[in-house]
Specification:
Elements: E1 5-11, E2 15-22, E3 27-34, H1 39-51, E4 59-63, E5 66-67, E6 72-74, E7 85-86, H2 87-95, E8 99-103, H3 104-114, E9 124-129, E10 133-139, E11 142-143, H4 171-174, H5 177-187, H6 196-205, H7 209-233, E12 237-241, H8 248-265, E13 276-279, H9 286-299
Parallel strand pairs: 1-4, 4-8, 9-12, 12-13
Antiparallel strand pairs: 1-2, 2-3, 5-6, 6-7, 9-10, 10-11
């Protein structure tokens, strides 16, 4: 019997990544295209991609924003024109093929639980550091969706509501990897302040105390988020994802800051069980794998 193939699509603010993925999550073809900047152009591009792969058994999509169980997208972060788009039904009706849509952070958590570094963990979480802070929560071996399909939206946690305007103190702002790299790039007077590779080379060199201090503070804030999540959910493992997680120094420093926070808590630190902190196994492919994993819970 022939193995069925699926088209998995990750709609991001900059690129649409897609792959032909088989039932065992093997990648057979993979590519990316720039994300269009209007709803009409995006729909046209998606239709074109699907039309080129008519042999597929289904379409699995992930994207930013709130996504309801029927595959309708709301408040889609960097893609506001997707608001109120019934994406799954549009594709299903036009191509007579099953389609599912899930939030990208939840897709990453599913990928890690299905095949990655959350595999075997009954209770865990993925924290995805990007322009904001997305993620997903696994409880009792199942993805936690929440009453409004918004569980795991770490960006909206308030770090310190008394320190200034509430939006400036949200985790999504304070732990934005994009913002952090840009801050470092500005301090280093880089020609391109968003050049993350150069920023991390400078951090690893350790010559600029301003940048080192900024990096340690950033990692301490991530560690604090993990501690807060642990205090509420009592999970066993957290995996860190997003493009910045490709830098080995990141998770190493988050772990160091996490241990330091426990030391500073003294007696109270002994009452809370530490979680294991690891990098996401699938990095840039996590969303594609997770989108298909969700599809299979619905249709296979």
């Amino acid at each position: 019997m022939a193995t069925r193939d699926y088209l998995s699509i990750d709609i991001g603010g900059t690129y649409i990544k897609y792959a032909i993925v088989d039932e065992a999550f093997g990648m057979k073809k993979q590519d990316k295209v720039p994300t269009p900047k209007s709803k009409g152009m995006l729909t046209e591009m998606l239709y074109g991609l699907i039309g080129q792969h008519r042999e597929i058994a289904g379409v699995a999509i992930c994207c930013p924003g709130k996504v309801t169980s029927d595959g309708t997208v709301y408040y889609s972060g960097a893609l506001p024109f997707m608001h109120e788009t019934p994406l799954a039904s549009l594709i299903s009706k036009n191509f007579a093929i099953p389609c599912t849509v899930i939030n990208d952070g939840k897709a990453a958590a599913l990928a890690e639980h299905t095949k990655g570094n959350l595999r075997g963990a009954a209770d865990g979480a993925a924290v995805i550091l990007g322009s904001g802070v997305g993620g997903g929560i696994i409880l009792n071996n199942s993805l936690l969706m929440g009453a409004n399909n918004q569980a795991g939206e770490f960006s909206f946690i308030n770090a310190n509501i008394d320190a200034g305007p509430i939006t400036s103190q949200m985790v999504g702002r304070k732990l934005s990897a994009v913002h952090f790299v840009n801050q470092c790039g500005q301090l280093l007077a880089l020609e391109d302040p968003d050049d993350g590779q150069t920023v991390f080379r400078e951090i690893e060199n350790g010559y600029d105390e301003r940048v080192l201090s900024l990096f340690k503070g950033y990692c301490r804030n991530v560690a604090s988020l993990i501690m807060n999540v642990q205090a509420i959910l009592d999970i066993e493992k957290v995996v860190i994802g997003g493009g910045i997680s490709a830098q080995p120094l990141l998770v190493k420093t988050i772990q160091k800051q996490y241990d330091q926070l426990f030391e500073e808590m003294g007696f109270f630190g002994k009452m809370l069980h530490k979680v294991k902190i690891e990098v996401c196994a699938y990095s840039n492919n996590a969303n594609l794998i997770g989108a298909l994993s969700y599809f299979k819970t619905v249709y296979v």
